[in-house]
Structures are given as structure tokens and as C-alpha cells.
Q: What sequence folds into this?
DNA sequence: CACTTGACCTGTCCGC
DNA sequence: TGCGGACAGGTCAAGT
């Protein structure tokens, strides 16, 4: 479930790996995964990457862009290996031929992935690179394309970027760069949660929803950018606020605390690599540091790290919600 | 307009 | 062991 830290981690990886590369082809394996006409991207180089909330963008030369939303199960995986399209390539290991998209011999196994994730993306020599970010699943490390693969972007000499999305909620969209800002989600997007300048705008936007539960407001991208279910629960636990509390019942002081907590937990997650990437590959080849930072998310039944009372799972704003029933009361306790 | 609910989709897990 | 169903959750559309 890529949220802001995961998407930022993906962006940083792409910044390192694909900026400067000219696109040779863009192939949608099934309709729906790719919006817009990708043909203007062909032959153009990726000039820069950006992120706004959970939305990711690749800006190409001459004012073209590829915008991406990974939603819950999307991932972007970059592979550079013995090029199937490089004439007379060395004898390859003929891995399991998964898929129909030609001779895909760039399947790296988990060990290779971990070893080369450190990255040796040097100049002309295309070494083996296997990097992936987004939803943690075996598709990050297994042979590609696989059944979750929806779009393949080729850069030539065996370098490919795969857009995988098990549940098909995510999307890529090719468009003029100036059109990206007009995407409704981006046009309405609230402030990024980091830095002191986020607070006044967050307050203004949050206060418009007087009767809504604070959790629903945190999840609203037009109020504050980048927060999803995980970080909403974590921030409210850190600030000791019950997710069901209406905005009107929350003081400015507390509201500011919630924003700070959200920013802090997302920064922590970012430091841990966005809870995906090579962390996923590391520990026993699965689930590495994923969610290790979480104090309440998916920890129902476990003791609250602050008071020891078991974390409970309930439903707020139509979402699975985790909280400590002692630390997070519906009403502010009568002064401490 | 504020607020809530269902739909989208597929893999996984639970109970029978 | 198989099977139905609930659940996962970001965003949008449609509901009250």
C-alpha cells in the first residue's frame, strides 16, 4: 500500500536509474493500465522525476510527462541485465519463460536482486540491476513480466521499467507536462505534510469538515497530501486522538500535533526506505522491514507500546482502524 | 456543500 | 480439502 514515503522511495530510485535514458518503447499488456497516447514519449529522454502526495511523475524532454498512481498494489520495477535484444549476448541461464512478451531473459533471482540493488548504474556499461519499489510482493524480485505486469517501458540494451499492479487500480498516464497539474486529484491536492508552511493550509482545509471524523479528514488528499490508512492510524495514536473524534472537537493545538505526528512517522518510514525496496528483499527474502515502524497498524491484540493495553481493530470512515482504547479516548480526558 | 457508502479488482485468509 | 464470503484500501461516483 504505497503511501507518501513509499512513493517517494520509488521516485528516488527512478531518479537514480532512469533519468537521462531515452525511451525506446512503451507497451501496455492490457488496456486500462496506460492512459493517453504514449507515442510522444518514444525517443525522448526522461529529464526529471517528481512526486506530489502519492502521485509520481516522470517529465520527459519537450514538455511530455508520464504520470503514475500506484494505488494499493502498484509497483515499479527496473531491470537491467543481459539484454535479450543485444545481438549475440552471452549464454543466458534461460530462466522460466514467463509470459508472452518475447524472449525475456532478464529475470534476476532474489540473490542477484539484493546484491545488485546497491546499484552500479554506470555510464555505458549496463550491469545487472534489479530494483523495485511499491507494493511489497514477489513480483519485486521474481521473473518479469508476470501476471501482474501491465506496462513495460523499454530503454534499450535490456533496460526495462515494469509497471506491475495486482489489483489494477493504479494507472500510468502519458500527457503534456502542463496537463498534469490539471488532473483533478493534483489540482485539488492539499499541502505536503512537511515543514512549518503545511500547518496553516492544513488547518484551513481541515476546518471545513467540522462534523467528519478526523481519520476521514486525514485520508482526504484535498486536505493534506500523502496520508493513507497506515499513517493516519499511526499519527492519531502518536497524538493520542481517537480516530472517530470530529474535527470540531479537536483544538488547534491538538490538530497541529496530529499533523506533526503524521509528518514525523512518514519521515521515519522514509528513512527506513519507505518500508519496501531492498528491505523487502533482505530479511528471509520477504517482508523485511516492512511496517516495522508501526506502533498500532495491524498490531491488534498486541500491547500498546505506551501503556500496554491491547491494540484493537475497529472500523472508522469505512476503513480498518487500529487504536489503543486507553491512550485514544473519544473525548479529551478532563485535564491530566 | 458536507458527509457516507459502494464500486473498482484480485489475492488471501477465515470459517464451515 | 474445497468453497463462499469478508477483507484489504486509494480514489471516484453517486448516494443522503
A:
Amino acid at each position: 500500500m504505497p503511501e507518501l514515503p513509499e512513493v517517494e522511495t520509488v521516485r528516488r530510485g527512478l531518479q537514480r536509474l532512469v533519468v537521462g535514458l531515452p525511451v525506446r518503447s512503451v507497451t501496455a499488456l492490457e488496456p486500462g493500465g496506460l492512459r493517453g497516447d504514449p507515442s510522444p514519449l518514444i525517443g525522448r529522454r526522461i529529464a526529471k522525476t517528481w512526486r506530489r502526495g502519492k502521485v509520481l511523475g516522470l517529465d520527459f524532454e519537450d514538455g511530455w510527462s508520464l504520470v503514475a498512481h500506484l494505488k494499493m498494489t502498484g509497483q515499479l520495477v527496473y531491470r537491467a541485465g543481459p539484454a535479450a535484444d543485444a545481438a549475440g549476448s552471452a549464454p543466458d541461464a534461460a530462466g522460466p519463460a514467463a509470459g508472452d512478451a518475447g524472449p525475456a531473459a532478464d529475470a534476476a533471482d532474489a540473490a542477484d536482486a539484493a546484491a545488485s540493488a546497491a546499484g552500479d548504474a554506470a555510464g555505458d556499461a549496463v550491469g545487472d540491476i534489479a530494483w523495485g519499489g511499491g507494493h511489497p510482493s514477489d513480483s519485486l524480485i521474481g521473473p518479469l513480466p508476470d501476471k501482474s505486469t501491465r506496462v513495460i517501458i523499454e530503454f534499450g540494451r535490456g533496460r526495462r521499467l515494469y509497471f506491475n499492479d495486482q489489483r489494477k487500480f493504479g494507472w500510468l498516464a502519458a500527457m503534456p507536462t502542463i496537463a498534469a497539474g490539471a488532473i483533478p486529484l493534483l489540482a485539488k491536492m492539499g499541502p505536503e505534510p512537511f515543514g512549518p508552511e503545511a500547518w496553516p493550509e492544513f488547518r484551513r482545509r481541515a476546518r471545513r469538515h467540522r462534523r467528519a471524523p478526523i481519520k476521514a479528514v486525514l485520508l482526504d488528499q484535498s486536505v493534506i497530501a500523502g496520508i493513507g490508512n497506515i499513517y493516519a492510524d499511526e499519527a492519531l495514536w502518536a497524538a493520542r486522538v481517537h480516530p472517530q473524534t470530529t474535527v470540531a472537537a479537536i483544538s488547534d493545538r491538538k490538530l497541529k500535533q496530529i499533523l506533526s505526528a503524521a509528518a514525523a512517522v512518514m519521515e521515519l518510514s522514509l528513512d527506513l526506505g519507505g518500508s519496501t525496496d531492498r528491505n523487502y528483499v533482505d530479511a528471509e527474502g520477504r517482508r523485511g522491514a516492512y511496517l516495522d515502524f508501526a506502533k498500532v497498524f495491524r498490531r491488534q491484540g498486541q500491547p500498546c507500546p505506551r501503556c500496554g493495553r491491547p491494540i484493537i481493530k475497529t472500523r472508522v470512515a469505512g476503513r480498518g482502524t487500529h487504536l489503543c482504547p486507553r491512550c485514544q479516548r473519544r473525548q479529551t480526558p478532563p485535564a491530566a
Remarks:
- Residues 73, 137, 148, 165-169, 208-212, 216, 317-318 of chain A lie near DNA strand B (CB under 10 Å from a C1').
- Residues 53 and 225 of chain A are 4 Å apart (CA to CA).
- Chain A has a mean pLDDT of 83.
- The first strand of chain A starts at residue 25 and ends at 28.
